[in-house]
Amino acid sequence: MELRALAEQFAQFHFLFVTRKQLAIEDAEAIKNYFASQSIDYCINCAAYTAVDKAESEKEAAISINATAVGNLAAVCREYQTRFFHFSTDYVFNGQASVPYKESDATDPVNFYGHTKLQGEQAAINNNQNSIIIRTSWVYSRFGKNFVNTMLRLMSERESIGVVADQVGCPTYAADLAGAVMQIIAGSKFIPGIYHYCNKGIISWYEFAIAIKEISGSNCVVNAIETAAYPTPAARPHYSALDTAKIKDSYSLDIMPWKQRLEACIKGL
Description:
The chain is 39% helix and 14% strand. By secondary structure, the protein is an alpha/beta fold. It has one domain: Rossmann fold (3-Layer(aba) Sandwich). β2 (83-89), α4 and β3 (131-136) form a beta-alpha-beta unit. α3 (59-79) runs parallel beside α4 (112-127) and α5 (147-157) packs across α7.
């Protein structure tokens, strides 16, 4: 949705937006037929199975969307000489680091969702070396279901909530991520490979929730809790901050501070 919102700012391009109902990307033949009927220079894959806990039990569905479908898209993009963008996640790492992860750091997912996203990266690279993979983290938007919208809803419904304070990472405003992709497309360079993108700053989910409370003017009490007090089917990495130097230097991107962009998101709702 953020890409759709940005489209009017890039009048030099003709955009094609398709939903999963219109194009089942796990169906290799359907993808081939769609590409054969269009002239596509860039393909941006925004589809993903993101239900981290459900992925532990719905493994086939997670693999189908996060891995198999990515390989299908990458292969068709190679056939039609289409430049391919794919989004991955901080969850490909195990969370045992103490400094932001670089693209070259070893991957070691701690949950099945992370495993499928890593498989998707590998499928993209194996099927199309002319791919850009962008790992991102803690993505939120004005649209859809995400941490910011969930917190705003809960804060309007409850007097107090508990948010984990021992998981640390970097929020990403989806509008900024979409803008970064479009800046690459509109620019003169396309350098395939893996990149990290998130907004500037490292915080906990608790600190993120406190900022949402303050910006929105909520009276809800936000209590810090430990991960152990909120057990989930899927393990989470305790530290998943990403180093964004590579994408910033490669494409001259100006990456904004997380809180400034959170304010812009909430004010835009």
